[in-house]
Amino acid sequence: MVDNGSGPETRAYLCELAARRPNVRLVFNPHNEGYAYACNQGIALARGEYLVVLNNDLVLTPGWLGRLIAPLALAGDVAAVGPVTNYCAGDQRVDDARYRPEDLDRWAADWAAANAGDLAETGRLIGFCVAFRRAAIDRVGGFDPVFGTGNLEDDDLCLRLRLAGYRLFIARDVFVHHHGHRTFGALGIDFRRLLELNLDLFAGKWGLVTGYQAYSQADVLSRTRFDPELHYVPPDSKAVFHPGVPPMAIEGRREVALLLIPDWSDPSATWREAVRGFLAGFTAEDPVTLVVRVEPTTADYVSRVCLELEALQAETQVPEPQRPDVVVEATFLPPRRRGALYTAASAFIPLPGQRRRHLVREATACGLPVAGGWGPEDLRRLVRRALECPPAGSGPAGGGGPEAAAAGSPVAAY
User: Fold this and answer.
1) Is the pLDDT of residue 402 over 60?
2) Which of 205, 238, 271 is the last residue of a domain?
3) What is the arithmetic mean of pLDDT over 343-372?
4) Which residues fall within 8 angstroms of residue 265, CB to CB, at 6 or more apart?
5) Which of 92-96, 193-197, 361-365, 373-377 has the lowest mean pLDDT?
6) Which of 57, 78, 222, 304 has the fewest CB atoms within 10 Å, counting from its CB?
7) DSSP E strands: which ranges in 41-166?
């Protein structure tokens, strides 16, 4: 059981439960680390032949588990099974589910009897409740934590399973009650803004030039083959993020590289203030590069960042030869190589937004010092710290490399 930043009452209950049941193991996160990351923590520790991931806002019904995992025994290419529910998008939703809370078990039993053995093959399962075959997860990996707090990590995993040749099913004789979006509401998250960001991250990851709205799983399946080097997501984050990860190449970077990742969920676009702080704090004579990492790594986002950087540099009225070094970085990084982004840098500049906690977690796991602000003096202090105590994995000052070559000129200098 992974506690993702709950309050003391929940933690006390879980400790009491584990004391009574020796098969229950606990993982406590001090903060909410996102659905994908938390699920992966459980997957990395799990020992079973089948893995069932559950949201924390479900009410389960008698017999649900046996019927949910039964289809996994039908054939080796069945990778995942999901139930139906009262609250979700897509084919798993039962529109006419009407019951009082005290009548749920009886209603679900009647539903199971009326739909006994009814399986529907699908291309997509919503992550609120899914049973996976362990061998399939071992092959394609877990949920991709790039999607942060939540949304689209389940679509991404289902697509990778389909690419690897597996099938997915809805067990229509399994009904569970889903309250829906309880975590988003409790954390005060702007669900729509987060969804829009993750739709773009998904589109960028899978090469959807016209965005998610035109997404066709059949189209991606027809033009993509499963490649573990590109598509496997290690459930254990320590295998991806640590100071010993070989750094990616950032062409022309100087002795100190400050990494900044704009968070598009931030309505104030604070990343521009951080760039202003860098431009005001340094000159071309300083041994420092600001690396602006663009995510999603799509052409429209890269163009947007480049245009805004040009405007920000122009407003300083500093002649171009005297401006400090800025590089736009948009190389595609497979999930298992994402740590190379951080080990190529010397320090990290965190920004407000819904990705902040997850990006800081990744940066610090790779040994990077983190800025306490983005004003000129904050950044000068960060550079002094990086020069005095360079991170163990800090990358070389320049040079190409396989990642840079494979990305099709992803780096632009300013």
Assistant:
1) no
2) 238
3) 95
4) 190, 193, 194, 197, 353, 354, 355
5) 193-197
6) 222
7) 50-54, 58-59, 78-85, 119-122, 129-133
Residues in Cβ contact with 91 at an 8 Å cutoff, skipping those fewer than 6 apart: 120, 122, 124, 170
Residue 111's closest CA among 48, 177, 45, 42? 177
| Residue-averaged pLDDT of the chain | 91
Check: CB of residue 144 under 8 Å from CB of residue 36: yes
Q: Same domain for 89 and 191?
A: yes
Residue type at position 338: R
Residue 180 tokens read as 């829906």
Burial class (CB in 10 A: 0-12, 13-18, 19+), 392: exposed
| Structural domain count of the chain | 2
Residue 70 counted as domain residue: yes
CA dihedral for 264, 266, 269, 272, sign (positive or negative): negative
Q: How far is it, in rounded angstroms, from Cα 301 to Cα 112?
A: 47
The pLDDT, as a whole number, for residue 66 is 97
Same domain, residue pair 124 and 252? no
Does residue 15 fall inside a structural domain?
no
**Which of 176-190, 372-386, 396-410 is the least confident region?**
396-410
Q: What is the CATH number of the domain that holds 218?
A: 3.90.550
- Would you say the C-alpha torsion 237, 243, 246, 250 has a positive or negative sign? positive
Q: Of 211, 238, 265, which residue is a domain's last? A: 238
* Domain presence at residue 386: yes
- For the record, the structure tokens of 270 come out as 């604070």
> What's the CA gap between 260 and 139, in Å, rounded?
33
Parallel, antiparallel, or unpaired: how do β-strands 167-178 and 119-122 relate? antiparallel
β 78-85/167-178 pair status? parallel
Q: What is the DSSP secondary-structure string of 272-305?
A: HHHHHHHHHH--TTSSEEEEEE-SS--HHHHHHH
Question: Which CATH number fits the domain that encloses residue 388?
Answer: 3.40.50
Whole-prediction pTM value?
Answer: 0.90
Is there a single domain that holds both residue 101 and residue 215?
yes
Sign (positive or negative) of CA dihedral 196, 198, 204, 210: negative
Tell me the two tokens of residue 375: 């004003």
Q: Which domain holds residue 77?
A: 31-238
Look-up of token digits 């573990």: 228
Together in a domain, 271 and 123: no
Indicate whether 281 belongs to any domain: yes
Residues 205 and 353 in one domain: no
